[in-house]
Design goal:
This protein has helices at 19-23, 35-39, 50-61, 67-81, 90-107, 111-122, 141-157, 162-183, 214-219, 228-238, and strands spanning 133-138, 186-193, 199-206, 241-246, 252-259. It is of the alpha+beta class. It has a five-stranded antiparallel β-sheet, with helices on one face. The longest helix has 22 residues, at 162-183.
């Protein structure tokens, strides 16, 4: 939907009759065929969200929330996302949906219902970035920095808040440095997920000696001079999902996720 061009300025001299009545000669009164031919190209307008998107959100929420609660969730989302509900761009829409999903989680207690609601809200964002992944081979500290940059890049694409972005990048640093210190080499995969919930997933994999005392490390009882236990425990605390697969001599794979709402 484009914003129609404004009317042109009034003619000078105050005359109100047709041009031919003022000039005395034949003057064509045919209007220009398009605004472009009269005043040059019309700049493209922002995507209009307006009532259409809030109506769509309300239609989804009507399956799960009472009228008063869903109005509160939408109004609060608009305030938190700092979105003008009449004129919003794609990025504004995505921020609004993130805030609405956050509000929904406070009121929908049944997990199956919540998952369905979040999925249906996500389908309203037709311009959301497609899922993708970036793989970084890790052998030294410079590679760890490259992995951090990859994580930050995906976070920016998906409009991740600064707070969550910091947690994601910190987790990448911890896992990358563990690879360099204890395995010598490995790889980090950073990827965006859109189903069943939006998330950034990090997979750190190596073919090093493995971890023989994983439970002791995660319990906080183990201390090493390099701080390996603190790195894994810290990563677990930062993330929403945490999984480790390891065995002596078989390497280690750590998979973590941070959900984006």
């Amino acid at each position: 939907m484009k914003i129609p061009p404004r009317d042109g300025p009034p003619s000078s001299g105050g005359a109100t009759g047709p041009p031919s009545s003022r000039s005395g000669g034949p003057v064509s009164t045919r209007l220009p065929s398009s605004p472009q031919s009269a005043r040059g190209p019309v700049p493209s307008s922002p995507q209009i969200v307006g009532r259409s998107i809030t109506d769509q959100i309300e239609t989804v929420l009507a399956q799960f929330l009472s009228p008063a609660v869903r109005k509160s969730v939408i109004d609060c989302g608009i305030r938190q996302a700092k979105v003008d509900p009449l004129y919003a761009r794609e990025g504004d829409l995505r921020r609004l949906l993130v805030e609405v999903k956050r509000g929904v989680k406070l009121f929908v207690r049944d997990q199956a219902q919540l998952d369905r609601c979040i999925t249906e809200l996500g389908e309203l964002d037709h311009a959301a970035p497609a899922p993708r992944e970036i793989t970084i081979e890790v052998r030294n500290e410079e590679d760890v920095l490259r992995a951090r940059s990859a994580g930050r890049e995906l976070c920016i694409e998906h409009l991740v808040s600064d707070v969550l972005q910091t947690k994601i990048v910190t987790a990448i640093s911890e896992l990358g440095r563990n690879i360099v210190r204890y395995a010598g080499s490995g790889q980090i995969v950073v990827r965006s997920l859109t189903s069943p919930m939006r998330a950034i997933e990090i997979i750190a994999q190596d073919h090093g000696p493995g971890i023989s005392n994983l439970q002791e490390i995660l319990s906080g009882k183990y201390r090493s001079r390099h701080g390996m236990g603190a790195g894994l425990r810290g990563t677990k605390a930062l993330m929403d999902a945490f999984d480790v697969k390891t065995a002596p001599g078989a390497g280690t794979t750590v998979t973590v996720r941070k959900y984006l709402g």
